[in-house]
């Protein structure tokens, strides 16, 4: 049995980023930038009006001032207008500020009288002008290499005129769930059978990482069929098998992988839940064997598969998001493995939820954070703890 840290290090050493590619912005959400990107355009790119109103010279626009409207400046064209004290230019939101103007009075604060306006407020220099570069300067870094592309990153890239972006490679995953007792949802359940929740869970987790599920199949604990399923699965970049990695007579995964010439690098990790975790390599495919118990499958996916997928996708930060919260109960780990306790972050507190057993899927479904308690560690209610989140 090896430590979690060693397991993670070995896995991350064994996997490599897949080849980068250039994708349209519409396909970039959740990918990782393969380049550091700097702004080629300032934001705003030119001084422009924040309001519909009148561009004016502030020093000539005290409350009650009467100004001559000398022209109109709509958004989208630059009419190259120039104003002097005593003048006003009708202007609209986003329109370039005429030369000589140093403020905009909004239309609600001016009264139009034919070719003139009367200003109803004191106007100060700079008011309602969005200055060139005040949001973002040309040359400023807007995206780091390995950074996740989020919805707002896409908007920022588009604002710079980029139609596409170079990102880390695609990662394809195959999923094989095993077990004679396991039945695909949608079919009839006989006595003693259970529905296959792990396959659905793992597909969702893979997608949540930003990788693609190439195939997902269920396989009974049958040597020949498992050989075939694994042979199909290792055509993907990663294969995630669930169930059958333990030591019972029906746990065939390890033997079948060996028979197929796979190199088993890790089997059994000091982690609770999830001890019978397996990692190996077969025909260039990274093979993960996760325990069948749903919570064990979930926890080992997050600790070991998630960082591997992120590395393959070109991410620079392979960690799960973290949050600090006030613990609501005393917790201690008297066992011999670090324990991941499932709980909910609610209003700054971490509340353990549900049965802390590896089959307890309902409790897991109510949780949104994991608290790792090291071997021998005792935590007291009221303490601030760091927890991992995933949603
Ligand atoms: P195993 O790792 O195959 O020994 O399975 C451990 C436990 O997880 C058993 O109670 C199985 O019934 C359960 N289990 C195995 N595979 C799945 C699955 N795909 N979905 C839900 N539970 C499973
Ligand atoms: Mg089984």
Characteristics of this structure?
about 400 residues; Molybdenum Cofactor Biosythetic Enzyme, Chain A; Molybdopterin biosynthesis moea protein, domain 2; Molybdopterin biosynthesis moeA protein, domain 3; six-stranded mixed β-sheet; elongated; binds adenosine monophosphate; binds magnesium ion
Count of discrete alpha- or pi-helical segments spanning 4 or more residues: 7
**Low-confidence blocks of residues:** none
Number of domains: 4
Helix content: 10-25%
Shape type: elongated
What's the N-to-C terminus distance?
30 Å
The profile of the biggest β sheet is: 6 strands, mixed
Tell me the structural class.
Answer: alpha/beta
Bound molecules: adenosine monophosphate, magnesium ion
Identify the CATH class of the largest domain. Alpha Beta
Strand order of the largest sheet: 8-5-7-6-10-9
Name of the CATH architecture of the largest domain: 3-Layer(aba) Sandwich
* Full CATH superfamily name of the largest domain: MoaB/Mog-like domain
Mean pLDDT reading: 98
Number of strands: 29
Can you tell me about this structure?
The protein is of the alpha/beta class and 391 residues long. The protein folds into 4 domains: 2-17 and 169-313, MoaB/Mog-like domain (Molybdenum Cofactor Biosythetic Enzyme, Chain A), CATH 3.40.980.10; 21-43 and 134-167, Molybdopterin biosynthesis moea protein, domain 2; 48-130, Molybdopterin biosynthesis moeA protein, domain 3; 322-389, MoeA, C-terminal, domain IV (Beta-clip, Beta Barrel), CATH 2.40.340.10. Helix content is 19%, strand content 31%. It contains 7 helices and 29 strands. The protein has helices at residues 4-14, 151-159, 197-209, 223-233, 253-259, 294-312, 361-365; strands at 2-3, 21-24, 37-38, 48-49, 53-56, 66-73, 87-91, 103-106, 110-113, 116-119, 129-130, 141-143, 164-167, 172-178, 182-183, 194-195, 212-219, 238-242, 263-267, 269-270, 278-282, 285-290, 322-327, 331-332, 339-346, 349-352, 369-373, 378-379, 384-389. The strands form 9 sheets. The protein has a 6-stranded mixed β-sheet with strand order 8-5-7-6-10-9, with no helix packed on it. The protein has a 6-stranded mixed β-sheet with strand order 17-14-18-22-21-19, sandwiched between helices. Strands 23-26-25-27-29 form a 5-stranded mixed β-barrel. Helix 1 crosses helix 6 (294-312) and helix 3 runs parallel beside helix 6 (294-312). The longest helix has 19 residues, at 294-312. The protein is elongated and about 95 Å long. The model has no long low-confidence stretch (mean pLDDT 98). Bound molecules: adenosine monophosphate and magnesium ion.
